[in-house]
Amino acid sequence: MATVPEMKTDLAVNVWRGNSERGGFTTFAVPRHDSQTVLDVVTHIQRYLDPTLSYRYACRVGMCGSCAMTVNGKARWTCRTSVAKVAADGQLEIAPLDNLPVIKDLATDMSGFFDKWARAKGQFKGPLTRHDDFAQVAPASKERLAANAGIECIGCGICYASCDVVTWRADFLGPAALNRAWTLVNDVRDTQQPERLNAVAGDAGCHVCHTQGSCAERCPKQIAPTAGIAGLKRLTARAAMRGEL
Question: What is the DSSP string of the chain?
C-alpha cells in the first residue's frame, strides 16, 4: 500500500531584500499551514522574523491589487495565491514586480505606471455638469459591451510587470494604460476621443504591442488587454486614413 508523503512543516522562502540598485535574496523558514496564502507567508516574516521587511497590502481579498509581487517568477496577487498551488516542493521565491523601480524589498514605485495612464488620456471627461440629468447609455450597445470587457481593471500592475515589451521599451504605455484608453474610447459620453487616439497612436502606443498575450494570461480579473489594444490599432489606423491623426 502506497504511503502518502508527509507535508513539510516549514517552507524555505527566498525573499528579495534591497532596492533596484543593490540587493539580494534572503532565506527564511516559515511554518506551513493549510489554506495558507503567499501574503500570509510574507506577513509572517515581517511580524515574527524580520520587522524591517517592506511590502504592501490592504484589502486581503483581491479587490485592491496592492499586494502584487513576483512569486516563483510570475507576477501574482499574493492574497489570492495559495501556497499549495505554487510551492508543492516547499520552496518559494518572492520578489518585487518587474518593470518597476524597487523602493525597498517588495515595495515598488508605481508612479511611472500611473503616469502612463495619464499619458494615454485615461481620465474620463464628459460634457455634463452636476446640474444636468444623468446620461443614459444603452447597456446592450456594441460600445458599452466593448467597454465592459475591460472596465474591471484595478491597476494592480501584474500585466505591466508581465509585459516583455515594457521590459524592452521603457516608454511603452503598457497593457493597463492602453486597456483603460480602450474602455474610454468606447464610452459614448466621453469628449476626448481625438486627443486619446493621438495619445495611443504614437511611437510608444498601441502599435508597439507584439500581442504576446502574457498580460491576458496573468490578469487576475480575466481581462484581455490585447483585445483592447487590437481595437485601438484598428481605430487609429482608420483615423490616420481619414487624415485625423
Answer: -PPPPPPPSEEEEEEEEE-SSSEEEEEEEEE--TT-BHHHHHHHIIIII-TT-----S-SSSSS-TTEEEETTEEEEGGG-BHHHH-TTSEEEEEPPTTS-EEETTEE--HHHHHHHHHTT-S---S--TTSPPPP--TTSHHHHHHHTTTT-----HHHHH-HHHHH-TT---HHHHHHHHHHHT-TT-S-HHHHHHHHSSTTSGGG-----HHHHH-TT---HHHHHHHHHHHHHHHHHTT--
